[in-house]
Amino acid sequence: MTTRTTALIRMLAEDFISEKIMAEPTYEELKARLAELEKQGANKRSGNLEFRVSDKGAVSVYGMGRFPTTLYYEQWIRLLERADDLKNFLEENKSKLKLKEG
What we know:
Largest sheet: 3 strands, antiparallel
Helix content: 55-70%
Strand content: 5-15%
Low-confidence stretches: none
Number of helices: 4
Structural class: mainly alpha
Distance between the termini: 62 Å
Number of strands: 3
Shape: elongated
């Protein structure tokens, strides 16, 4: 590395550090951020489901639990074709299943 490159890196690092240390959020910024986080939390608890395509081309469903449920297209189609069978199975075995109190 040249002396000039080293000096530029040092200047950028100092600017970055001083911005991180010196830039304390204002009360209004903190209030806005808190409102944003509360909104996100409310969406997660509201039972809304969100669908996303993963990097590998699968479909992930978020909002059913701690982790997403991810299947590939063919798997989703196969599962959806048997939706009535799944509903019947769930009802028949309801007494054996752990149910969350809502």
